Amino acid sequence: MPKPVMVNMSATRTTRRILVETKNLTKDPPPGISAVPNETNCRYFHVVMAGPKGSPYEGGLFKLEMFLPENYPLSPPSVRFLTKIYHPNIDKLGRICLDILKDQWSPALQMRTVLLSIQALLSAPNPDDPLANDVAVMWKSNEAKAILTAGQWTREYAIND
């Protein structure tokens, strides 16, 4: 008599959710954001994000990577900038300081929400909760110079990248 096959229903639901979210991202992408799953791993996404209008990142195209952990959506995605950026909430390694990627994560949130929140962070840096302390100090002491530097970095690293 054959042994019963054990199916992990939680993993099946998670995969189904990832597939549905991926389909929605492809069918109706957030404005200025492209998120394409890797051909060999449906949990890894190549993201391109346009710098928001009116921000020092305007005109730039920023590459990011997003990875959904095994227990997604119970845990938040891991997202990192691959394009160099001058921002108080993004460090030299591209890691992002954003509450919904840490302690404010909820399984009700989706990849789309995360990407839109990161794009909003580009419009509204928060130097009071920094990941790049040197950038935050500049942002607080001389905001005009920090914005100028962010624009220079955008032109240098995020245009024609």
Automatic annotation (TrEMBL):
The keyword Plastid does not apply. PROSITE patterns: UBC_1, UBC_2. Residues 13-159 form the UBC core domain. Gene3D superfamilies: Ubiquitin Conjugating Enzyme. GO terms for molecular function: ATP binding; transferase activity. The keyword Disulfide bond does not apply. The active site is at C97 (glycyl thioester intermediate). InterPro entries: Ub_conjugating_enzyme, UBC, UBQ-conjugating_AS, UBQ-conjugating_enzyme/RWD. Keywords: ATP-binding, Nucleotide-binding, Transferase, Ubl conjugation pathway. Belongs to the ubiquitin-conjugating enzyme family. This is UBC core domain-containing protein.
